Amino acid sequence: MAGFVVKVLVKHFRPRFRGVVGEQKTAFLLGMLPKSKYKVIDDIMLQAGGRTTQIDHIVVSKSGLFVIETKNYKGWIFGHENGEKWIQNIYGRKYEFQNPIRQNHIHIRALKQVLSDFREMPIIPIVAFSSRATLKIHTENHNVVLLDDLNSTIKKYNDDAISPDIMEKIIDRLEECNVNSPEKRKLHIKSIKRRRKYEETAIASGICPRCGGSLTRRRGEYGYFYGCSNFPRCRYTHK
């Protein structure tokens, strides 16, 4: 009985533990950036538009704000920048996960609301995967890199887009708006679970969880999938 309980606990907490480990690795690497040029803010939660969003890492620099979504996944990673879901393939076993580029778009929208006073501020999204992953990603307009290449990707941007004074004001605003309350962070997690439950229920009923259209079976580059009947207005897909 004890062994069964341990297995259940491991299965439940493994994704969360894996995510924490990935974020810690990323924070360590970002901490190696020159502190005179870059300000790193880890694990920040912002409230905008009546909902909260949690951002793994933000790097403030003279070139703009880097918004970093980390994925501590191994194996082959397949996906398209416009896809709803991406696929992790480990020795032939396939697992779906949310397109992290889209996750970063949600973060950026919240960031723009919080920093609405700084309209000329460039925002550069980056998705960083564990260096144990092999990326098979189709993307032209986004930075999707391995952790080993994260800092070099950031350093490629060297335009003087933000003055030191504005940098300090942005940092102050972000630290001021960071939601530190444990209660609000718990509510954020509950909200995510509710959205996932709604999505699962809608999919099981053949309904698009994004727009309410019907899900129809189609064949694509990576095999069969379910797509929204309102395509191209709605691009939701489910494997």
What can you tell me about this protein's structure?
With 239 residues, the chain is an alpha/beta fold. It is built from five helices and twelve strands. It has helices at 2-30, 100-114, 150-155, 164-177, 182-204, and strands spanning 39-48, 51-61, 64-71, 75-80, 85-90, 93-98, 123-129, 133-138, 143-146, 215-220, 223-228, 237-238. The longest helix is centred in the N-terminal third of the chain and has 29 residues, at 2-30. The chain is globular, with a radius of gyration of 19 Å. The chain starts with a helix and ends with a strand.
Properties at a glance:
239 residues; alpha/beta; 5-stranded mixed beta sheet; 4-stranded mixed beta sheet; 5 helices
Which series of helices and strands comes N to C?
HEEEEEEHEEEHHHEEE
Globular, elongated, flat, extended or rod-shaped: what is the shape? globular
The major sheet is characterized as: 5 strands, mixed
Unreliable stretches (pLDDT < 50, length at least 5) are: 4-13
Strands ordered across the widest β-sheet: 1-2-3-7-9
Rg estimate, integer Å: 19 Å
How many strand segments?
12
The share of residues in extended strands comes to 25-35%
The tally of helices reads: 5
Q: Summarize the amount of helix as a percent range.
A: 25-40%
Structural class: alpha/beta
- The first-to-last residue Cα distance is 35 Å
